[in-house]
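HOLO CASE FILE
Compound: zinc ion
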Amino acid sequence: MKKRLLALAMALVLFVSVLPLQANAVKGGKLVALTFDDGPSATYTPKLLDGLKKRNVKVTFFVLGQNAKSNLGIIQRAYNEGHELASHSWNHPDLTTLSDSEVLWQLRATEDVLDQVCGKNASYLVRPPYGSTTSRVESLINAPMAYWTVDPEDWKYRDPETVRRNIVNNTFDGAIILVHDIHGTSVDGALRAIDDLQKKGYEFVTVSELHRRRGATMDKGEWLYSVKPRGVDVGSIAKPEITYTTDGKTMTVTIKSASGAPIYYTTDGSVPTHSSAVYKGPFKVPYSSAVKAYAAFNMNGVRSELASLVYGQGNRGSAPKIKTSGGKVQMETANTGTKIYYTTDGKTATPKSTAYSGPVALPKGIYIHAVSAGGYYSTSPETVVYYSPRGVLLADVRPGAWYFNYIDRLAAEGLMNGMGNNIYEPGTNVTRAMMAKLLYEYSGESLGSGWTRTNPFTDVDQDEWYAAAIEWAYRNKIVNGYGNNRFSPNGNITRQEMSAMIDRMFTYQGNSLPRGASCAGKFADYGRIEKWALSNVEALVAAGLLEGDGKNIEPRSNATRAEIAAVLCRAMDY
Ligand code: ZN
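Model generated. Tokens follow.
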């Protein structure tokens, strides 16, 4: 029994190891190689690249060396986006009319330009101009030569629709199509043909990839025409997987390739080329390095999608945090390896500003601006806080705002907490539970632990952060709830509800507000004050604690944090 189990396990291992190849081999969709000659063109090739990117199509560019040299950025982009770069000579002569040394120069000069993009000694397919060669010329071309099997004669028919039709009508599975990216009509026609052929199930690959996928060889001096289906498709190359571990100073990087293809990688943020390092096992790099990798059988056109692990480089990270402690200002950043720079004169902070080196006593009544920068990070977003005369750091409350003094004062006295990072959200609504908690804290009283519940509110859970505050407010007749045994702790508190709670708080503390002064006629929306809250609202208005906007008192509007801070501060002074 044990032996049989072992045999089964081994069969399973074998099966798993051959599975990727098997799965790909049965896929076998329709493949086609689109090629573009005579470019790159500064006008049309970028437009073509945009169209190819949108359609996720890879093609082969047979460039003229002289055009490539003057449009290096364009062929760099083509390479970066996974297209194959190939040679079509330096300036399109009929090679058969040239001497041996002239032919060799045409080829070598073009390769030198392509090497600037693909890396030293990469290999390139060659398409002799006009497809014209002799055995003498062929012996000089030290590369496979790419012919074509579909020729839409796009250079003759300067009409996108004719180009599209000529391509679509003549394309077959395994074909190599010839187009020129130096004519706008050719580019438009080719993109339309791609749309049609993709609908018919064609997958577009580079010339070299077409051969690899179907297990066809490409030998030096051999002419390539097409690769018809031969019952094999080894599938595209899986994108490598990059993982890392770190001790905070270095990263140990591991790269895995499911396809078994060699992995080329860089650690400086550049796109890997034929000249890049080849992965041999886990390696160490400084923390925050950018690692990019391809799995490739040939970096020029026979490779996976780009895998990248960019930790920081080009990454702004997060803005610094600013706190106060013991009368000093402290700054912190989460961006490893960076420094914090700050200003106290109201100007934007940059890496040229004062470097933060530890807790610092700063004058009050100023703006502090801070950024973090350095290491592999670019300059972070800026943190800006006002350091108030009371010593409060305020990120979203500015001197000059009508509520500035109220929020600053409550924050300084510990009665209003920020929402984190010195944010006070003056315009945010306050829930009924928050209001109860605010008054509970303001009272300075405490139910202690193990208090017994007396309130009837079925929607106030005993475990919630506001349970004690609501119990305290209920016991002291500061809150009544809505009847029906409901309190609605998470509902926003209205201005009339707030008025009622403040008024009752005064009563509870033995200080009553003035009674009997009607504010009928004072506010246009007087009639909107609900009966139960009328005496509360009128008492607060008479005492000068609650103000309208000059016209309305807005009894049913939600009270904001700024409005509650204002009423509470006035109540404290009353
Ligand atoms: Zn040509």
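CASE NOTES: The longest strand covers residues 290-298. Residues 1-26 have pLDDT under 50 and may be disordered.
CLOSED: yes
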